[in-house]
Design a protein that fits this description.
This protein has 241 residues and is of the alpha/beta class. It has 2 domains: 121 residues, no CATH class; 98 residues, no CATH class. Helix content is 38%, strand content 7%. It has a 4-stranded mixed β-sheet with strand order 1-2-3-4. Helix 7 runs parallel beside helix 10. The C terminus is likely disordered.
């Protein structure tokens, strides 16, 4: 995530949605002490959404993929409310393929060995859908279903949406291409009918909220409040993989 006190914006960084490019473009607007996500400490911050923080700046530096609600609890309330919040989302079917491919390729990934141990994508995605359905909605909404992020762009239209958000922030920036995927195959080739349906059911809330239909992109208005089932909200600490 990024927080700029001077320009009053918060970038909520959902993993595998083009966030590294956004970080590269906007990091210069953030103080040095809030810029460096590589400054890691041994403690695990925010094991629960409401855990009190010793210093909110430490939380923001040490956690890259915080949800909007985690950021809200970590920051002084007046600073959070004053900032414009934005995030990018991705087609859930493609999102899962990207996460799988990255974990397989990167030996530095904390779940590299576990993910490779599944042997293939179909086994992996069955496990994800049955045990670990952290939703992109959990980054954008709080656990009561209230929307915390004003601007939501799409990975599929990253450059256009980034330009629109920059205009809203009063910034003149272009998006560099950072952390590009080495994956060559189209995401559709990873699925059969069964696994496609598994993702459709497990990530139904993301698909409907952000307008991804049957893997395509629809023109939908993102709701201010979710009609979500009990237990839908999961944080990074709840993940199995």
């Amino acid at each position: 995530m990024l927080y700029s006190p001077s320009h009053q914006f918060i970038f909520v960084h959902i993993y595998k949605t083009g966030g590294e490019s956004v970080m590269a473009a906007l990091r210069k607007y953030c103080p040095v002490y809030l810029r460096n996500r590589y400054v890691r400490k041994s403690v695990q911050l925010l094991p629960a959404v409401a855990q009190p923080m010793i210093d909110w700046r430490e939380a923001l530096v040490n956690r890259q993929h915080m949800t909007a609600e985690q950021i809200r609890y970590a920051m002084p309330p007046d600073l959070f409310e004053a900032a414009v919040k934005f995030a990018f989302v991705r087609n859930p079917w493609d999102w899962q393929v990207s996460e799988y491919a990255y974990a397989c390729q990167s030996k530095a990934h904390p779940y590299h060995e576990q993910v490779r141990g599944f042997g293939n994508f179909k086994t992996y995605i069955r496990h994800k859908c049955e045990n670990d359905t952290r939703l992109q909605c959990s980054f954008v909404y709080d656990m009561t279903g209230a929307r915390l992020v004003q601007h939501v762009g799409r990975f599929e239209t990253l450059n256009e949406d980034f330009a629109r958000i920059c205009t809203a922030l009063g910034l003149d920036e272009t998006l560099p291409h950072v952390n590009a995927s080495k994956r060559k195959r189209d995401w559709r080739t990873y699925y059969d009918d069964t696994t496609f349906d598994l993702v459709r059911e497990a990530y139904k809330l993301d698909i409907e909220t952000f307008g991804y239909g049957e893997g395509g992109i629809g023109d939908v208005a993102i709701p201010d409040r979710l009609d979500a089932p009990d237990g839908w909200y999961k944080t990074q600490n709840d993940e199995v993989t």
